[in-house]
């Protein structure tokens, strides 16, 4: 800086001196707080973008995979139950004594009364041997009922193709009274393969329902439904309680049902706005559908992430506030000290007999005393820190306080 003393010599000094107006420390604190908050929000946004979003995608994929695996497992369980149903029906039809009695009835060797008396204990023993068997109906080769015990379903509910099939078939679920049942048909064949009749066996669906007791590994909102056909209609039954679903759309939207392609693909999965659905086709007319609310998968995670984010932001904000509270007394003290130093410096300058003005490296006024102002005749309030030396000079020229000069520019 340049130090000019009027009334005597000019001395040159290089260095720094305190400015009249030290920077606004409180403004600095406000900027620090503002930029800190902006930084916290930026970190939160980047965290959401690069951590939460990929995590949600991975979780969604994992939840879909899990639901698909559960659907496949449960469908395999139902398939095994249907196979067991066929096996039970086949065992009943393969009883030699019962087949012989039917052949004797058809040939006229025994009468109907004798036939009923002989076959009743055989079928009762078959029903007693398995709690799943609720009824047996025996038909002759012409499809006429020759004996029936227990629950007897309507013929419309019997398996399609029961008349000519040489293999056991199963249909259902079939409604009778207040319950749902499976209906199996098993041909009665002689040792040489001749078809002499058919057994229609009614079986309980308890084993199917047992697969879905409780939440069945499907979470709190997981629900299982059996979709089956009745002609051109799609019917649906809830597997947790066996209740009928009057409208399929109440369980799964038509768009979502079309997306998972229940009848045209063996398996599928779709994610809707509110639910995730997976299906496994069990037979041509029987499919398992699992549904789970999307909120169950993402709700708790979103809440936890939000709570964690709010907690982190809270800790950061507390840190910023603590820093602000720590710096505030210090800044006030610095302001008081700087103000005191500035006042003392100004008093020292004003009490000097000589005029003094200090300039920075850009030749702008840093400080001056009253003697300097009076010597040059500057009016009160003109001189201020920041005014350049040339501005002060031209002000004096305009006021005519420097006397005649040949070349003002050369002089400055």
Structural notes for this entry:
- By secondary structure, the chain is of the alpha+beta class.
- Among the domains are: 95 residues, Beta-Lactamase, CATH 3.30.450; 125 residues, PAS domain (Beta-Lactamase, 2-Layer Sandwich).
- The chain has nine helices and 15 strands.
- The strands form three sheets. It has a six-stranded antiparallel sheet, with helices on both faces. The protein has a five-stranded antiparallel sheet with strand order 4-3-7-6-5. It has a four-stranded antiparallel sheet with strand order 2-1-14-15.
- A hairpin with a 3-residue loop joins strand 1 and strand 2.
- Helix 1 runs antiparallel to helix 6 and helix 2 packs antiparallel against helix 3.
- The longest helix has 69 residues.
- The two termini are 17 Å apart.
- About 5% of the residues have low confidence.
Protein topology:
Blueprint: E1 2-6, E2 10-12, H1 25-93, H2 96-107, H3 112-129, E3 133-140, E4 145-150, E5 169-176, E6 179-189, E7 195-204, H4 206-210, E8 223-230, E9 233-238, E10 244-245, H5 254-260, E11 267-271, E12 275-283, E13 286-293, H6 294-350, E14 355-359, E15 365-368, H7 370-376, H8 389-399, H9 408-411
Antiparallel strand pairs: 1-2, 1-14, 3-4, 3-7, 5-6, 6-7, 8-9, 8-13, 9-10, 11-12, 12-13, 14-15
Q: For the record, what CATH class of the domain at 85-209 applies? A: Alpha Beta
CATH A-level architecture of the domain at 85-209: 2-Layer Sandwich
Radius of gyration: 49 Å
**Low-pLDDT residue spans:** 4-22
Mean pLDDT: 78
CATH topology tier name of the domain at 85-209: Beta-Lactamase
Number of DSSP helical runs = 9
CATH homology superfamily of the domain at 85-209 = PAS domain
H/E topology pattern = EEHHHEEEEEHEEEHEEEHEEHHH
- How far is it from the N-terminal to the C-terminal residue, by CA? 17 Å
Overall shape: it is rod-shaped
- The counted number of beta strands is 15
Q: What's the helical proportion of residues?
A: 40-55%
Structural class: alpha+beta
Oligomer: single chain
């Amino acid at each position: 800086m340049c130090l000019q003393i009027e009334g005597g010599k000019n001395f040159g000094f290089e260095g720094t001196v305190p400015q009249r107006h030290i920077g606004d420390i409180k403004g600095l604190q406000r900027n620090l707080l503002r930029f800190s908050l902006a930084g916290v929000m930026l970190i939160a946004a980047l965290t959401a973008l690069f951590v939460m979003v990929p995590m949600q995608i991975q979780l969604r994929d994992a939840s879909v995979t899990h639901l698909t695996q559960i659907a496949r497992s449960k469908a395999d369980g139902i398939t095994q139950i249907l196979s067991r149903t066929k096996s039970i029906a086949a065992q009943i039809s393969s009883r030699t004594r019962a087949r012989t009695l039917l052949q004797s009835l058809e040939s006229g060797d025994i009468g109907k009364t004798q036939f009923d008396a002989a076959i009743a204990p055989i079928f009762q023993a078959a029903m007693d041997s398995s709690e799943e068997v609720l009824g047996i109906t025996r038909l002759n080769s012409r499809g006429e009922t020759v004996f029936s015990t227990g629950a007897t379903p309507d013929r419309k509910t019997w398996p399609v193709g029961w008349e000519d099939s040489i293999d056991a078939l199963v249909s259902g679920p079939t409604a009778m009274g207040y319950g749902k049942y499976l209906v199996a048909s098993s041909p009665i064949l002689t040792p040489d393969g001749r078809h002499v009749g058919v057994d229609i066996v009614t079986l309980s669906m308890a084993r199917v329902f047992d697969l879905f007791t409780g939440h069945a590994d499907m979470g709190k909102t997981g629900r299982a439904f059996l979709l089956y056909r009745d002609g051109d209609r799609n019917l649906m039954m809830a597997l947790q309680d066996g209740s009928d679903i009057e409208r399929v759309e109440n369980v799964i939207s038509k768009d979502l049902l079309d997306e998972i392609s229940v009848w045209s693909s063996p398996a599928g999965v779709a994610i809707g706005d509110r639910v995730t659905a997976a299906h496994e086709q069990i037979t041509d007319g029987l499919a398992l559908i699992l549904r789970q609310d999307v909120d169950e998968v993402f709700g708790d995670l979103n809440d936890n992430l939000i709570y964690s984010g709010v907690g982190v932001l809270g800790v950061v904000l507390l840190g910023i506030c603590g820093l602000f509270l720590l710096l505030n007394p210090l800044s006030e003290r610095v302001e008081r000290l700087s103000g005191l130093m500035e006042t003392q410096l100004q008093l020292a300058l004003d009490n000097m007999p000589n005029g003094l003005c200090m300039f920075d490296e850009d030749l702008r006024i840093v400080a001056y005393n009253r003697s300097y102002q009076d010597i040059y005749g500057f009016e009160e309030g003109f001189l201020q820190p920041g005014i350049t030396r040339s501005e002060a000079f031209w002000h004096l020229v305009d006021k005519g306080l420097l006397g005649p000069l040949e070349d003002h520019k050369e002089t400055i």
